């Protein structure tokens, strides 16, 4: 087992925080998001020990100052704080509550921060068990995508006890620039899923309406200028235009690659739909958006950015 370096602790303590501050961080899930996030924490001088079942992910993180662990138990041994960003409800529940999981193997008083996007009931479930075991759990999902993770410009939306949020800030600030405390445990997930359902709906609506205007013969650039200076303006028209070639930095202008994958949009819309179902909140537009992004996925474009839905609608037009 790798030992945690005491020399480094002193550097951090003097550079950033009081001697009582958290210095040792365990990071679980070193994928597209987590790899960059863990690296950014290490860059600020914290001792970061990472775990991921993927050897490639571990090796890549090691190049960025993240010490490798071979299990969750090893990663959390001696950690003051645990950060995780994992793919699904089941993986998160297993990682925290399983026999080999975080709650069982972390020390009392450890701060546990999960940044995965999951059903709001998942953090609620973990919070109760963690609290019984003397550990503090908070949900802190993120917005900003892989670019935001790489550039440490993520937005965090946290749920849980205010004091845990405040304690988490020195770590979250290594990875992001906006940090919101949304309320009780699970409310970070509620905010995240609400944002992503709205983003999915406006993205789909932008694709559909721009396709119509272009089909009617409007110059795409003129149409976008009109929208961006009229009442239909949104993040989708200004930043994330689904029509290729109009916004150079949008995924549509790089063949819909390296964006927010359509399959992740489907995942988030399904989580949001389940949440709405649980409280019988009507989501007519959210339901249609979910179905349409599912069609994109079933046609084999799940890896493309979610704005690929424009291409699908555009092809439909050509086929008529
Ligand atoms: P990813 O698939 O690239 O990474 C997930 C990593 O978790 C993988 O490397 C996998 O091997 C690892 N993993 C699986 N089981 C594990 C375990 N038990 N312990 C430790 N590691 C384990 O996914 P990602 O794109 O990094 O997304 C991760 C989470 O962040 C998801 O919940 C996603 O919805 C959310 N998210 C993603 C984005 C994005 O743009 N990619 C944006 C915001 C939020």
What would you say this structure looks like, in words?
The chain is an alpha/beta fold and 320 residues long. The chain has helices at residues 6-15, 34-43, 55-62, 72-76, 89-97, 102-105, 121-132, 145-151, 162-175, 187-215, 220-228, 235-238, 262-279, 284-301, 309-319, and strands spanning 24-28, 47-51, 67-68, 81-84, 111-114, 136-139, 142-143, 154-159, 176-183. The strands form 2 sheets. Strands 3-2-1-4-5-6 form a 6-stranded parallel beta sheet. A 3-stranded mixed beta sheet has the order 7-8-9. Helix 2 (34-43) runs parallel beside helix 3 (55-62), helix 10 packs across helix 14 (284-301) and helix 13 (262-279) runs antiparallel to helix 14. The longest helix has 29 residues, at 187-215. The chain is elongated and about 65 Å long. The relative contact order is 0.09. Mean pLDDT is 93; it is low at 5-19. Nicotinamide-adenine-dinucleotide binds next to helix 5, helix 8 and helix 13. It catalyses: 3-hydroxy-2-methylpropanoate + NAD(+) = 2-methyl-3-oxopropanoate + NADH + H(+). Keywords: Branched-chain amino acid catabolism, NAD, Oxidoreductase. Pathway: Amino-acid degradation; L-valine degradation.
């Amino acid at each position: 087992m790798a030992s945690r370096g005491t020399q480094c602790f002193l550097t951090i303590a003097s550079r950033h925080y009081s001697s009582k501050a958290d210095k040792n961080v365990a990071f679980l899930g070193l994928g597209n998001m987590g790899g960059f996030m863990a690296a950014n924490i290490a860059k600020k001088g914290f001792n970061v020990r990472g775990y991921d079942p993927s050897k490639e992910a571990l090796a890549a993180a090691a190049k960025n100052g993240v010490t490798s662990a071979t299990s969750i138990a090893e990663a959390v041994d001696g950690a003051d704080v645990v950060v995780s960003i994992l793919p699904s409800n089941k993986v998160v529940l297993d990682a925290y509550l399983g026999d080999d999981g975080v709650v069982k193997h972390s020390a009392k008083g450890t701060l546990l921060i999960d940044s995965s996007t999951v059903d709001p009931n998942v953090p609620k479930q973990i919070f109760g068990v963690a609290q019984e075991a003397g550990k503090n759990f908070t949900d802190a999902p993120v917005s900003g995508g892989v670019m935001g993770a790489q550039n440490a410009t993520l937005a965090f939306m946290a749920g849980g006890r205010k004091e845990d949020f405040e304690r988490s800030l020195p770590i979250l600030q290594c990875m992001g620039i906006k940090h919101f405390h949304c309320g009780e445990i699970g409310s970070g997930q509620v905010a995240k899923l609400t944002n992503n359902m709205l983003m999915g709906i406006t993205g789909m609506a932008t694709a559909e309406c721009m396709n119509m205007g272009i089909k009617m013969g409007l110059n795409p650039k003129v149409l976008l200028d009109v929208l961006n200076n009229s009442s239909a303006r949104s993040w989708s028209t200004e930043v994330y235009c689904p029509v290729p070639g109009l916004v150079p930095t949008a995924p549509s202008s790089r063949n819909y690659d390296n964006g927010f994958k359509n399959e992740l949009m489907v995942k988030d819309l399904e989580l949001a739909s389940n949440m709405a179902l649980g409280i019988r909140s009507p989501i007519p537009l959210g339901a249609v958006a979910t179905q349409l992004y599912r069609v994109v996925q079933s046609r084999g474009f799940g890896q493309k950015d979610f704005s690929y839905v424009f291409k699908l609608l555009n092809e439909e037009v050509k086929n008529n």
